[in-house]
Fold this sequence. Notes:
By secondary structure, the protein is α+β, with helices and mostly antiparallel strands. The protein has 3 helices and 7 strands.
Amino acid sequence: MEAFKELMGYLLPAGTLEYFELINVLKDKEGLVLFLEEKNELPQEYKGQKFHSKGFYPEVRVQDFPIREHKVELSVKRRRWEDPDTGTIVSRNWDLVMKGTRLTKEFAAFLKEALR
């Protein structure tokens, strides 16, 4: 299992497995879909405060680097937490997707360089 996690660390955007768990992999006619769910670990800036998990934001799909000629999509479910006293919802500031695209930043930078 440790070898699998290490391998996935090389295939996913840097730092992804720190905050997300790979919960499923689906191969369809289009390619691969890697399903990621954010771990139920409160962001550092809220540690020690009274928050509880309120489930997930809607799933977001982003394109990533192809693997062996298979298109790869990351299906990402981000978690949210609620302060039970105020009803305030918080989430981790997670900046993986290149603004204005549905591509990971790494993949967008690669394409930009390759298409010059």
